[in-house]
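Late entry, iron/sulfur cluster complex.
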Amino acid sequence: MSFERTQEKLKILADAAKYDVSCASSGSKRSNASKGLGDATGMGICHSYTEDGRCVSLLKILLTNYCIFDCAYCVTRKSNDIKRAAFQVQEVVDLTINFYRRNYIEGLFLSSGIFKSADYTMERLVAVAKKLRLEENFNGYIHLKSIPGASDELMREAGLYADRLSVNIEIPTREGLKLLAPEKKREDFINPMVKVKNEIILYKSEKDIIKSTPKFAPGGQSTQMIIGASGESDQQIMWTSNYFYKNFNLKRVYYSGYIPISYDPRLPQIGTDVPMLRENRLYQTDWLMRFYGFEVHEILNNEHQNLDLDVDPKLGWALRNLDQFPVDVNRAEKRMLARVPGLGMKSVHKIIEARRFRSLNWEHLHRMGVALNRAKYFLICESRDFERRDLTGPQLKSLILQNSTSKYQKVLSSQLNLFE
Ligand code: SF4
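Prediction complete; structure with ligand written out below:
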């Protein structure tokens, strides 16, 4: 295989992989002036987080962008008129090792279109991971996409060689999936997730007894949903996330604003803005559910089916629940402090620690580095001063918006570009 052909494949298959955000963000700017193999500029280097929270750079590619399916939202769908390519198993192994030795990457993120069948494709993904681990002694991070419909045995093998496994749900509702990917069923995603969840539990419990038991997908499993392709509400999206977090012990759900890529009456037209701000608000809601003790129905319900894009979801919730404020810095439970707009968990812990020794006032909070620009409308402390006075929710919202320049305004209509 010529160097030019490998480079061309790399370009095609790294570009096709950029639509998968389940290993988050950005590309490498590192280039190779000597024209040797491994010029990383624009060649699909992304970043992800390992089990212990380290940020690692990954070679992010598809094994192939051929696919027997025709999911309307996907650039790889069989009816799309694009240049196709496929790597051999050994090529991916060689590229990974090559990039790793050059210090361009610390691991591999490998996904694929489906050629022939789910098992045929999954077998090749597993073979890459197996060769890297057993033949190349590669101990870097490996994230494998599980192919929906692949057999249990292949899923089990994948978990023995990969750090993380993920199956993308893609479309948040059954109705949306039926509309845009009628060949697929929700069960095709759920079954591999059940398998991975059960194997993780099984291997962990065996390891507690027999120390030599290998690890199974120690980085857990994750999934991704495309946002804005099928008209679902934020309420539906977050209930779906909640269901997958609770039932499959997912480490992360990723939200990917739909990038219009085809002329299809079922989808937003080409040129429609990518819903970047909505995506961001969904991530914030996800965070509130996982770390701040919020339930989905508190933030999204039949009266409020979509998030307010003007303000973050915690502020949105607080403005609708002003009767629960002000919260007393010196007496409130941790749960309520965590619900104060503008207070992160770090500040909450600092406050709880500090108030054990003294009654806190505004000056103390300032000196502790607690951000009060929004929190001051929802808190009282020693002085009992209270900035909100008799303002209604809408009045308070406009006051807060007047006094803050949203860091998100500038990205309102920008296109998602994972490789810049
Ligand atoms: S099966 Fe996957 S790769 Fe193939 S068209 Fe559907 S989403 Fe794209």
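The mean pLDDT is 88. Will revisit in the morning.
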